Each structure stands twice: as C-alpha cells, then as structure tokens.
C-alpha cells in the first residue's frame, strides 16, 4: 500500500529522477531534450506548485518515492492552460516497476482532493497523443476530452482533459443523515455537535459564515466542548471560512481524519449476491437491533457507545441492512435519507468474513434500496487512508465530489 503526501525537501532529488525515468522508459522524451531537464527539476515544482509523492515501504523498513504528480493552481508558473477557477495537473509519473498497482489512481485522487480543498471548479490537464495508458485512466476517473482546448507547439500535439466535481450533498445534508444527539448553535452560527464522543462526525463543529473575529468564534465553540468534557473538534471543508485551517493549525489543532465524500446515482449495479465463498443471507429493518449495533460497533471498537450510537443513528430516517451467516451477524450497512440523497454509512464486515464480496454485496443492496426509497443520488464518507473501502467504492462507480478534515485541539 502506498501513502500519498506533499513532497519533503529530502524527496525532491528522487522525485526529479523518477519523473524523467518514467517518461524516458515510455520513449516519450529523449535524454538530451530540454524537457528531460525540466522533469528532473522537482525543486522548482515544490517551490512554485504543490508537488505530491506516492511513497511505498521498502524491504529495509524505509520508504521510497514510486510516483508523483504536480498540482498547479491557476496563476502558478506551472499552469500552462488553466483558466481562473481551474487547477492544472502536470507531470504524472509512476516508476516503471511500481505500475499496475493503482498508484496513479491514488495520485489522481489526491490531486482531486487538493483541488477540492482549494474550491477549484475544474481540473485540467494536457496529455500527449502517445500517452494511451494515462488516457484510459483519465476516462475511468470521469475526466472528459475537451478537443477545442487542445494545443501544441512544433510537432507536439497535446490533448486536453477536464474534470469538474459532481454535485455534492453539502455539510448540512450530511449532518441531517448523521445528526448529533445535541447541537449547540453559537452566536456565530457555528453548529457544535455533542454526542458523548460517539464519532467525530457527531462531535464536531460545523463552521459557517465569514466571522471577522475567527479567534472569538473559535473560543465560543471551545467553551461548548469544554463544558461537555469533549476535545474541541472542527470540520474544515469546502466553504469553510477563509484561513480557518491555518488559524487552527497555529492554535494547537492537528488534522485527524482527511475524508472524501463520494457520490454516484442510486439504483441497481450488478448482481446483489456475494461471491461463492460466502453462504448466508441479508435482510432489511427499520431499526438497528442489538446484534446489528454490536456487529457495527465491534468493528469500530466502540462497544461502550451503544446507547448514544442508537440515538445518533435513529435520529434520521434510515434502513438497516444485516448480513448473517450461521446465525451470526457478520455485516452491517445503514442507508439514511435526506432530500434527494441517500447516505450509506456503517459498512462493516467482521474480520473473519472479509474478502468474500460481502462488503460489495451490502453496498449494492444499499444502492438498490436507495432507489426504491426515491433517492436519486447516493453519497458516503470514507477516510482517505482507508484504501480497502476506497477500492470497493471505486469498483462500484463512486467518484469524489467533496472532502473535509477534522481538526482536533491536541490538548483538548
Ligand atoms: C471495507 C470492508 C467493509 C470490506 O469488506 P469485504 O467484505 O472484505 O469487501 P469485499 O470482499 O466485498 O471486497 C470488495 C472489493 O473491495 C476491495 N477490498 C476489500 N478489502 C480490501 C483490502 N483489504 N485491500 C485492498 N482492497 C480491498 C477490493 O477491490 C475488493 O474486490 P476484489 O475482492 O474483487 O479484489 C471491510 O474491510 C471492513 O469492514 N472494514 C472496516 C470498516 C470500514 O472500513 N468500513 C468502511 C467505512 S467507509
């Protein structure tokens, strides 16, 4: 499994070498080309744009750069064709020996996340006619060709692809499907969820507006959490007040869980049956029973929270899917409803029952159930680090539409 992050000073030499090597290996450039020198100059990319790297563990317990992409906001020296509101992707490269393991997909997702965090309305990239593998990847990730923006110089022709994030449910719809047991609205309109510590989602503050006094708005939220004996936690996503992330980082807050909001249409997708290695059945209920809660909270390591979990889960209209095998509950999924949206949550498969297609089966059931209940779109939240779940959702056609992180005060 690789980890994606912003390049550190120690990485840049290896990043430059890898980028040039990847292009040379595919015969896209010659060693003596000026462009080879530009590809090797990762230091300038780190200085003038956002240089992302994919790091893989090495056998001797260290990590090595296996891939990279450069994210260049409009106006940066690396943005060649970006228009206002667009972010341009440049120089995607994966080491030849690391290919066919999904590294490029993870880099592209991280780039999408980076663009969303900057409130970009569109991503744009140029690709050489010969880059067939990359073009298949862009198609799969929902990028579209924009031939009228194609460009080039001398003998080089570049094809342009763009990607615009699909409609996202937004923080308020998300909150409506996972309502805190109690919500305190501060004088600034920030909504502080309090649920005895059961999930950050139900124990975090949703900031709003453009407070002139960010410090004061934060102090009022901190007082709410202090009174409840909970660590102050703020959800920072698209639409958050400008400068909030920086303000929190400068005030002892640390990022705890970067999360992607994924969406797709409701409806049937493939056969709703698990693979041949699993025998059992699934059923739907209007309420979570004790076995459902135990199974879900067991996977989440939060069995102590049963009462408050029930209060949060049943605070919104929802259906509860259970998978059983040999009389045991081995899988759970919740489908909650708000406006035209259905929210999938609580997907959990007990460790002994994993890798038999049960997670996929439950998700497919959830998509069909969403459509039967009149929802047209489905969303879910998944932590960026949860590679297993991300792979499952990508298989089922979910795409990223939004993202956020929780910032928690370290001494809180
Ligand atoms: C994520 C989870 C629900 C998957 O359940 P599962 O029944 O093992 O998943 P499936 O067998 O249906 O796998 C479907 C696809 O997901 C991906 N996947 C699942 N587990 C994976 C793993 N450990 N590593 C990489 N890919 C994985 C694969 O693409 C797999 O397809 P394949 O088997 O054809 O390769 C399970 O690991 C789990 O309960 N994790 C803890 C709770 C959690 O993370 N929930 C999601 C919260 S958003």
List the helices and strands and how they pair.
Blueprint: E1 3-6, H1 12-25, H2 34-40, H3 42-48, E2 50-57, E3 63-73, E4 86-94, H4 103-117, E5 122-128, H5 132-140, E6 144-145, E7 151-153, E8 156-163, H6 171-177, E9 182-185, E10 191-194, E11 205-206, H7 214-228, E12 233-237, H8 244-249, E13 253-265, E14 281-285, H9 290-299, H10 306-313, E15 318-325, E16 328-338, E17 341-349, H11 358-372, E18 377-383, H12 387-395, E19 399-409
Parallel strand pairs: 4-5, 17-18
Antiparallel strand pairs: 1-2, 2-3, 3-4, 5-8, 6-8, 7-8, 9-10, 10-11, 12-19, 13-18, 13-19, 14-15, 15-16, 16-17
The protein binds coenzyme A.
Could you walk me through the main structural features you see in this protein, from its secondary elements to its overall organization?
The chain has helices spanning 12-25, 34-40, 42-48, 103-117, 132-140, 171-177, 214-228, 244-249, 290-299, 306-313, 358-372, 387-395; strands spanning 3-6, 50-57, 63-73, 86-94, 122-128, 144-145, 151-153, 156-163, 182-185, 191-194, 205-206, 233-237, 253-265, 281-285, 318-325, 328-338, 341-349, 377-383, 399-409. The chain has 412 residues and is of the alpha+beta class. The chain folds into 3 domains: 3-163, Gcn5-related N-acetyltransferase (GNAT) (Aminopeptidase, 3-Layer(aba) Sandwich); 173-256, no CATH class; 263-407, Gcn5-related N-acetyltransferase (GNAT) (Aminopeptidase), CATH 3.40.630. The strands form 3 sheets. Strands 1, 2, 3, 4, 5, 6, 7 and 8 form an 8-stranded mixed sheet that branches. An 8-stranded mixed sheet has the order 12-19-13-18-17-16-15-14, with helices on both faces. Strand 9 and strand 10 (191-194) form a beta hairpin. The radius of gyration is 23 Å and the shape is globular. 42% of the residues are buried. The model has no long low-confidence stretch (mean pLDDT 92). The protein binds coenzyme A.
């Amino acid at each position: 499994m690789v980890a994606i992050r912003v390049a550190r000073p120690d990485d840049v030499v290896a990043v430059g070498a890898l980028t040039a090597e990847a292009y040379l290996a595919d015969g896209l450039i010659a060693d003596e080309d000026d462009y080879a020198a530009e590809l090797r100059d990762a230091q300038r990319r780190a200085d003038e744009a956002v240089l992302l790297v994919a790091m893989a563990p090495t056998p001797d317990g260290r990590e090595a750069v296996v891939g990279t992409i450069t994210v260049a906001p409009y106006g940066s020296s690396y943005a060649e064709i970006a228009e206002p509101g667009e972010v341009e992707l440049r120089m995607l490269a994966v080491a030849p020996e690391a290919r066919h393991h999904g590294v490029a997909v993870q880099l592209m997702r991280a780039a999408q996340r980076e663009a969303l965090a900057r409130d970009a309305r569109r991503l744009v990239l140029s690709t050489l006619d010969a880059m067939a593998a990359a073009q298949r990847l862009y198609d799969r990730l929902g990028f579209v060709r924009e031939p009228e923006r194609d460009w080039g110089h001398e003998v080089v022709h570049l094809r342009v692809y763009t990607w615009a994030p699909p409609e996202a449910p937004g923080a308020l719809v998300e909150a409506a499907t996972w309502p805190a047991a109690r919500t305190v609205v501060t004088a600034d309109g920030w909504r502080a969820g309090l649920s005895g510590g059961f999930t950050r989602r139900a124990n975090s503050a949703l900031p709003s507006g453009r407070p002139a006094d960010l410090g004061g708005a934060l102090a009022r939220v901190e007082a709410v959490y202090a009174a409840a004996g909970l660590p102050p936690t703020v959800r920072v996503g698209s639409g958050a007040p400008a400068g909030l992330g920086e303000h929190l980082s400068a005030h002892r807050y640390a990022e705890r869980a970067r999360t992607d909001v994924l969406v797709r249409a409701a409806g049937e997708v493939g056969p709703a049956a698990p693979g041949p290695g699993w025998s059992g059945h699934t059923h739907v209920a209007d309420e979570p029973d004790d076995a459902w809660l135990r199974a879900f909270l067991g996977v989440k390591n939060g069995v102590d929270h049963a009462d408050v979990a029930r209060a949060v889960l049943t605070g919104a209209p929802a259906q509860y899917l259970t998978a059983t095998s040999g009389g045991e509950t081995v899988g759970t999924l919740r489908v909650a409803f708000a406006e035209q949206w259905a929210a999938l949550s609580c997907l959990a498969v007990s460790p002994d029952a994993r890798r038999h297609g049960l997670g996929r089966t439950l998700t497919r059931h959830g998509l069909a159930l969403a459509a039967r209940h009149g929802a047209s779109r489905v969303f879910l939240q998944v932590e960026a680090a949860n590679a297993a779940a991300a792979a499952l959702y990508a298989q089922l056609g979910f795409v990223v539409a939004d993202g956020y992180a929780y910032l928690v005060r370290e001494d809180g």
